Amino acid sequence: TMKSITEELSSDAYEGRAPGTPGEAKTLALLTAKFEAAGIEPGNGDSWFQDVPLVSIEAKNVSPLTVTGGSENMSFSYGPEMVVTSYQEQPKIDVANSDMVFVGYGVNAPERGWNDYEGVDVKGKTVVILVNDPDFGTESLEGDFGGRAMTYYGRWTYKYEEAARQGAAAALIIHDTDPAAYGWNVVESSWSGPQFYAQSANGGADQTKINGWIQKDVAAKIFAAAGQDLTAQMAAAKKKGFKAVELGLKASSSFENTISKMDSKNVVGILKGKTRPDEYVVYTAHWDHLGRCKPAPDGDDICNGAIDNATGTAALVALAEAHVKAGAPDRSIIFLAVTAEESGLLGSAYYAQNPIYPLNKTVGGVNMDAFGMAGPANNVIVVGKGKSGLDRYLEAALTGDGRVAEAEPTPEKGYYYRSDHFSFAKLGVPMIYFEGG
């Protein structure tokens, strides 16, 4: 089951499974047919689906990022040197002559005694931000931000959220491969083309006009033009008490937005429990991937998403088959294939905020995202080990299997905040996310 469904979902016919494309329609048809054949029931009344209201915003005719006011005027091109998008549902985005401020890691964490925005007014300005936490690069797991392990303050989603709360007009994250945990090619592919966001009542009016990334060497040139040394400022930003630096430069960029609204869909199935049917365990996996991306040298522009996450989606079906075959469990089991994970966990966040089954009756869950394909292993890797009371259940199961649970070797990459379990965990549902060893 897992092999055949992974192969089907990642075939070119599904066009990379982006929300709102023919690939979504094919994915929904396949999953509902497989769930029905497995013997589980529709999970939203008589429907297999939960509508997830999304808005698609695609930047077109993007002007270069121009930086003026320093030792030289500079211009950086869209794609190879910078990428920009907007969360605002406006047909035209224009940030002109916006004062630039370096705000270190862009963290405002009063419970940790840390505020990179203290003493500076960034309203209407362009903030330049480092990716990850101030503790990045620490070998131990001790420090103001958990040492080597990333906190949510290190995620790009937080950086943009805080910049908006501070009133910035634009937020530019400096890309650096190690702390970002992916190369510029991922940024360029993921942040170009249509970007999906949750629909909001105000059309994103409370967000920054521009969110984007700049290459590290671009940042170095900008800092040099301001008479600053990027390396020195990066080191200063790691220390408590860092003060934001007004760069004395002005940033400008503009683009047009193609905006469309749509309902994508979560797929929901349920197997009713026999003794506690009003208590629920949830299995989650995201069915979406990136769709069509920047073409490879041979012209292939389909990001097929076989591992991420056709494997986890196929596992949902395999688990439905296995549970039906084993007989009704004590609690009801929800099989939830969510949309728009690649766009910021939007499908799982929508379900968690608008649950079909009450979260206070959802006793826990397992998330499956990107299964390892290297073959059998004696261990499993728990992403965010120690963050869930479900760890001990996994360890008990592994003991009977002659295997062990181990913490992820790269906690600095922040994977705990990058998949759908986090949408539930931050609202109090115990969730576990583990992978092959």
User: How many distinct helices?
Assistant: 11
Classify the beta-strand content into a percent band: 25-35%
What fold name goes in the CATH topology slot of the largest domain?
Answer: Aminopeptidase
CATH architecture group name of the largest domain: 3-Layer(aba) Sandwich
Structural domains: how many: 2
How much helical structure, as a percent, in the residues? 10-25%
Look at the helices and sheets and give the structural class.
alpha/beta
N- and C-termini, Cα separation: 22 Å
Which segments are poorly predicted (pLDDT under 50) over 5 or more consecutive residues? none
CATH class of the largest domain: Alpha Beta
Total beta-strand segments: 21
Largest sheet: 17 strands, mixed
> Averaged pLDDT, please?
95
CATH level-four homologous superfamily name of the largest domain? Zn peptidases
Give Rg in angstroms: 23 Å
- Apparent shape: globular
Account of the 3D structure:
The chain is an alpha/beta fold and 437 residues long. The chain folds into 2 domains: 2-54 and 260-436, Aminopeptidase (3-Layer(aba) Sandwich); 57-258, Glucose Oxidase, domain 1, CATH 3.50.30.30. Helices cover 25% and strands 30% of the residues. It contains 11 helices and 21 strands. The chain has a 17-stranded mixed sheet that branches. Strands 7-8 form a two-stranded antiparallel sheet. Helix 1 (2-9) runs antiparallel to helix 8 (306-326) and helix 2 runs parallel beside helix 8. The longest helix has 21 residues, at 306-326. It is globular.
